[in-house]
Amino acid sequence: MRSGNINREILLNTIRGDAANGTMNAVPMLKKRVPELSDDQCEDIIETISSAMEMDDRDKVSLVVTAPPSFVINARTTMNVVQTMINDAECNILITGYSLSSYFSDLVDTIIQKSQRGVFVKFFVNDIDKQLGFEKILRYKGRFLKIYNYHPFEDEMAALHAKVISVDQEQTLITSANLSYHGQQGNIELGALIESKQIAKQIDDVFTKLIFSKAFSEV
User: Fold this and answer.
1) Cα–Cα 20 to 30 A to 216, which of 113, 138, 156, 157?
2) Where does the chain hold its CATH 3.30.870.10 domain(s)?
3) In this predicted model, what pLDDT tens digit does every residue of 74-84 receive, in sequence order?
4) Distance between CA atoms of 73 and 75, rounded to whole angstroms?
């Protein structure tokens, strides 16, 4: 089948109207012009476009790097960003830990202190039974410090491998760096600091859905 041309302005205005009114007029429009697309594919495309249209002009993305000390790079360092985000958090912290070393102990203390002052912390951990670095933080779990464990049941090689810190529903760090010396100082790691309420909310929504789907269990 031949695909027709789509009037970009009409499609974007239709998607914008759908977002405001809760309708799905854009799906039949896209389906009519590109009939080989399934309804699910149309919805995925429209959702992607809609999300992009909702990005605030004030949203910012910055490069975050871990590199050997001898390297001079025009970017913020992973350790500096992690420390600043956790130290400055006022309302909530979402953090994931594939591995956690003693090098991170000072910031663990800060996270515990924050939770004791009413900052709501959600710490997502990979297979906590094998993670000695989480012993201390486990002692302080409670109303404002929730720990969620991921342990694969169907595929033993699967893991919580995402490295994410999100604070106050405003700033999110997505990085390849673990919470360890080499992740913060020694390796070559790349990440992005995203200052966006929308992205922070999406990250929180992802982990909330994973909890409800029982991919994580509260410790």
Assistant:
1) 113
2) 60-218
3) 889 999 999 99
4) 6
